[in-house]
Amino acid sequence: MAKSNLQFPDGFLWGGATAANQLEGAYDKDGKGLNLADVLPGGKVRTQIMKDHGFAFEIDADKYRYPNHEGIDFYHRYKEDIALFAEMGFKAYRMSIAWSRIFPRGDEQEPNEAGLAFYDRVFDELHKHGIEPVVTISHYEMPLHLIKEYGGWRSREVIGFFENYATTLFKRYKDKVKYWMTFNEINGAVFHPIMGLGFSPKDEESKLQESFQGLHHQFVASSLAVKAGHEIIPGSQIGCMLIYAPVYSYDCNPDNIFHALREEQVFNYICGDVHVRGEYPVFAKRFFKENHIKLDIREGDLDVIKEHTVDYIGFSYYMSRTEKKIKDESDFIEGNILNGAKNPFLKASDWGWEIDPVGLRISLNQLYDRYRVPLFVVENGLGAYDKVEEDGSIQDDYRIDYLREHIREIGEAVEDGVDVMGYTAWGCIDLVSMSTGQMSKRYGFIYVDKHDDGTGTLERKKKKSFDWYQQVISTNGSEL
After folding, report:
1. Which single residue of 72, 188, 345, 476 has CA 20 to 30 Å from 224?
2. Sorted alphabetically, which keywords does the UniProt record give (predicted)?
3. What is the Cα Rg of the chain in Å?
């Protein structure tokens, strides 16, 4: 550990982050319905499914494995896992609720009591250890019935179903949860609508039209949730959640600089502006026109969006993105999920994700300059291969180095004057990767004995990074 000479705010929300579909398991227990993640197979085929068109949303157990079905069995082991989070000193735990545990089909009027009761137990366990829950209402786990019968977020009817779902959560957990976020990485739908919007585009030509119409429905639904949350839980903090990647120009060619600017506007700011400023940005009009996007905006939609804006921005940060106007195959780096060009100044992870700690400081400054609302880094972490040594230890110094440098840049951003609420490291316990469905892509401070072929005891084991993060939290970031 080294002195950082950085001052993090009092009450800074240190902790970790997960998603229900990636760790709970128990995919068909206690009345839970099937959701999107339950039909996504593990392995490289999952990445291809997200890129291709016309996915059928069916389980083919003879052909594929479905690692989300068991996850790491948090559903039955949550007490053990939360105790480990508490041992690290977590102040907050960012988690999600599985929509289909509460409404198995998604369109029912009355919720599933067994699902509600499970999250009561989780929240009670967190509070027993002094950990604040930070809850994402929808995190890549849309009920399968809404996908197959309604076409996912293409359908305006889903707005009402989501409003009923969110309102049910607020009423049930009003005394247990203060911090909420509506949709996980909402702007990621521009790249992968299958995850965020619950549909697979018919073809490339229709992708943008369908995606932005689906996003508009989510904007309205999110604003209605903010309205309900503020009414039901006075003093609650309800945020949006973005995947954020600052966009660099490949060089100083003005054409590339403007191309990078436009990419950043469309990807990073359309969703942020609607959620925080309560309106579509001025550049969206031209972007929609040039891409033949015609939104069906109903009477009252824009009023709801304007009147019920979020209290803070939660965001994930994994990488920056480098853009040039005209790219060829040699420009791309395998693994960069946002399709940027290779940045010659950056190294990459085992999965080809470029590592750019300074980009996090840039992101925080950009977001705060634009929006002037509190910011919450709710996902950041390193997916890597971990080796269990003969003595049983996991020496993940590479993870410590990655997290140390990113946390250092958050501290620098705080010194810059940015209002940062907290930091919850992604995958604080090993879980199923969203993008590849693998267990071997590990993020956690806690190792879980579960492997890509489905074998393993599910035993939990502390990595070297566990003790390191414990010290970071106990010193409020003054020792890194």
Report:
1. 188
2. Glycosidase, Hydrolase
3. 21
Domain boundaries, given as residue ranges, for the chain:
13-474
User: What tens-digit pLDDT sequence spans the chain (480 residues)?
Assistant: 767 788 899 999 999 999 999 999 999 999 999 999 999 999 888 988 888 888 999 999 999 999 999 999 999 999 999 999 999 999 999 999 999 999 999 999 999 999 999 999 999 999 999 999 999 999 999 999 999 999 999 999 999 999 999 999 999 999 999 999 999 999 998 888 999 999 998 888 889 999 999 999 999 999 999 999 999 999 999 999 999 999 999 999 999 999 999 999 999 999 999 999 999 999 999 999 999 999 999 999 999 999 999 999 999 999 999 999 887 766 766 655 667 888 999 999 988 899 999 999 999 999 999 999 999 999 999 999 999 999 999 999 999 999 999 999 999 999 999 999 999 999 999 999 998 899 999 999 999 999 999 999 999 999 999 999 999 999 999 999
CA distance 395 to 414: 30
Q: 71: closest CA among 114, 18, 134?
A: 18
13-474: CATH homologous superfamily?
A: Glycosidases (3.20.20.80)
**Which of 185, 323, 379, 412 does the annotation list as catalytic?**
379
Reading the block at residue 276, the tokens are: 């925080």
